[in-house]
């Protein structure tokens, strides 16, 4: 009972922090830069416990946060020159060349995990800026907030439907608690929320400038995209933890585990949403 109360309180503050941050562009950038840094730091700490792995936790974290901030500046129009990405590229080169001098027992592992911290965490989080700044100088919370609403709705729907009707395992080798029934139930609920968002926007006409032509089918498609890739993101992190032999990625969020535990779905859903929206805009 005590754990349930702690988990509920933490969840409420977690959701409130994300929703409130989206109301202001600077708050959003600050919060997700912090989230990016904490998640990479957590990831590096976990993989450094593996035999013959020793990656630079500090520089990898700084590099990931810088990429996020550089992307924020570029997408928002706060920084107009593409040279803002040069320090990040220099850092990546340094992390590769440094292994020549560190004399690690398995430099290939070090390279692989170092680059994975950037590809798996820093790059996906950075793409949230593409959703938040559809045009330079124009900020909109609608698309990034919608992605998280879809993820939370899917988690809730999948848990409720799966608990009541779940009989067929979705991926028993990696996550035996997930069922096809729960996943379908969560997906249908998300589509309903997507249609509701479309309806509310059509009434208030608060569309973003770039995606003002998204119709009800496009919104439903966005919701379905987030469900599919969010589920895969969850499974990827579950496989990561099973490989490491751990239950939670950390304990920074009481009752909810670590940063990877809370943002695993978003790490695949956010870039997938960006790809989907760009694809829709070209059709």
Description:
A hairpin with a 3-residue loop joins strand 1 and strand 2. Helix 9 crosses helix 10. About 2% of the residues have low confidence. 41% of the residues are buried. Strands 1-2 form a two-stranded antiparallel ribbon. The N and C termini lie far apart (51 Å). It is mainly α. The chain is 73% helix and 3% strand. The protein contains 11 helices and 2 strands; from the N terminus they run H-H-H-H-H-H-H-H-E-E-H-H-H.
SSE layout and pairings?
Blueprint: H1 2-21, H2 25-47, H3 57-76, H4 86-97, H5 99-102, H6 107-126, H7 128-132, H8 142-165, E1 169-171, E2 175-179, H9 180-204, H10 216-244, H11 259-282
Antiparallel strand pairs: 1-2
Helix pairs in contact: 1-2, 2-3, 2-6, 3-4, 3-6, 6-11, 8-9, 8-10, 8-11, 9-10, 10-11
């Amino acid at each position: 009972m005590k754990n349930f109360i702690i988990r509920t309180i933490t969840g409420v503050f977690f959701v409130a922090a994300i929703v409130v941050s989206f109301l202001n562009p600077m708050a959003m950038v600050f919060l997700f830069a912090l989230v990016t840094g904490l998640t990479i730091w957590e990831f590096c700490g976990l993989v450094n416990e593996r035999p013959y792995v020793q990656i630079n936790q500090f520089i990898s974290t700084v590099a990931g946060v810088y990429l996020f901030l550089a992307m924020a500046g570029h997408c928002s129009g706060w920084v107009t020159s593409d040279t803002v990405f040069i320090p990040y590229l220099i850092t990546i080169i340094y992390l590769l060349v440094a292994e020549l001098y560190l004399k690690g027992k398995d430099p290939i592992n070090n390279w692989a995990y170092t680059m994975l911290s950037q590809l798996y965490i820093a790059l996906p989080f950075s793409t949230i800026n593409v959703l938040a700044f559809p045009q330079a100088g124009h900020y909109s919370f609608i698309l990034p907030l919608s992605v998280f609403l879809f993820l939370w709705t899917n988690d809730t729907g999948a848990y409720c439907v799966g608990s009541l009707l779940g009989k067929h395992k979705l991926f028993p080798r990696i996550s035996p608690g997930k069922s096809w029934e729960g996943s379908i139930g969560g997906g249908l609920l998300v589509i309903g929320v997507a249609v509701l968002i479309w309806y509310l926007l059509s009434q208030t006409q608060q569309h973003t400038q770039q995606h003002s032509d998204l119709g009800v089918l496009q919104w439903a498609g966005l919701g379905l995209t987030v469900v599919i890739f969010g589920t895969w993101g969850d499974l990827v992190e579950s496989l990561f933890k099973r490989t490491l032999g751990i239950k939670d990625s950390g304990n920074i969020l009481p009752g909810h585990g670590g940063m990877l535990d809370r943002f695993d779905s978003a790490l695949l859903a956010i870039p997938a949403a960006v790809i989907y929206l760009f694809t829709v805009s070209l059709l």
